[in-house]
């Protein structure tokens, strides 16, 4: 304590002997020294630590937001599969209506029983992930009053199990078959979401020998 007091006393005496200009320079130099010591020893290390922590927090926040979004979508799917199924049924109904408006493109008639068997075989062909439950011929109704070529509609019932996208692809496949096919009705019943049991009735345009 005495040594410190002696040092301060000597420093004060010597400092007072220095002219005012040099004293001002010393004060400014001391302030600058303290500032740079604080800058390099305290502020910059802390700033780097704060920056790293801020970046880590931002990454965590983005991850939390992404997980929250996924969780919300998952909860929506779990809580409202019926709503999603209804939306898909509406989309299928719209597609069916479009197909019913344009049933006859450049196609060919079913003129023999072998042709009808070919139609049945083609209709029963579907994706391996789908399940064909049954396919059968139903009633036959006359079409038009042409005496030269009497025509009739042969109804075919197809029942299968598949999801929404498989059903869409299957309807597109049927639409592109080379025979005159039209879509009579489609029933889409969700048993275990996303799979559904689909009952489809087709009309096949035939001659008398093909029906």
Report on this structure.
With 211 residues, the chain is an alpha+beta fold. It folds into two domains: 2-57; 82-207, Alpha-Beta Plaits (2-Layer Sandwich). The chain contains five helices and four strands. It has helices spanning 2-17, 20-79, 81-101, 113-123, 164-175, and strands at residues 131-143, 151-162, 181-192, 195-207. Strands 1-2-4-3 form a four-stranded antiparallel β-sheet. The chain is rod-shaped, with a radius of gyration of 42 Å. The model has no long low-confidence stretch (mean pLDDT 76).
CATH fold-level topology of the largest domain = Alpha-Beta Plaits
Write the element-wise H/E pattern from the N-terminal end onward: HHHHEEHEE
The CATH homologous superfamily of the largest domain is named: Ribosomal protein S6/Translation elongation factor EF1B
Task: Give the number of domains.
Answer: 2
Described by its quaternary structure, the protein is single chain
**Average pLDDT score:** 76
What is the SS-derived class? Answer: alpha+beta
Strand runs, count:
4
Strand content: 15-25%
- How are the strands of the biggest sheet laid out side by side? 1-2-4-3
User: Rg, please?
Assistant: 42 Å
Question: Uncertain segments of ≥5 residues (pLDDT<50)?
Answer: none
Distance between the termini: 121 Å
Largest sheet: 4 strands, antiparallel
**At the first level of CATH, what is the class of the largest domain?**
Alpha Beta
The helix fraction, in percent, is 55-70%
- Dominant shape: rod-shaped
């Amino acid at each position: 304590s005495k040594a410190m007091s002696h040092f301060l006393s000597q420093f004060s005496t010597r400092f007072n002997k220095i002219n005012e200009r040099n004293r001002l320079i010393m004060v400014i130099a001391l302030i600058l020294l303290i500032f740079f010591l604080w800058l390099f020893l305290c502020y910059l290390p802390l700033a780097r630590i704060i920056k790293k922590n801020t970046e880590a927090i931002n990454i965590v926040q983005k991850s939390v937001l992404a997980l929250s979004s996924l969780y919300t979508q998952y909860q929506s799917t779990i809580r409202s599969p019926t709503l999603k199924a209804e939306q898909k049924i509406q989309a299928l109904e719209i597609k069916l209506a479009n197909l019913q408006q344009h049933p006859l493109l450049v196609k060919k008639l079913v003129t023999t029983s072998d042709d009808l068997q070919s139609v049945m075989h083609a209709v029963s062909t579907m994706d391996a992930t789908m399940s064909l439950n049954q396919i059968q011929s139903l009633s036959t109704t006359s079409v038009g009053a042409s005496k030269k070529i009497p025509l009739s509609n042969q109804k075919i019932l197809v029942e299968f199990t598949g999801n929404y996208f498989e059903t869409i692809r299957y309807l597109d496949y049927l639409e592109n078959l080379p025979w005159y096919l039209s879509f009579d009705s489609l029933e889409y019943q969700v048993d275990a979401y996303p799979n559904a049991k689909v009952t489809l009735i087709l009309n096949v345009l035939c001659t008398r020998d093909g029906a």
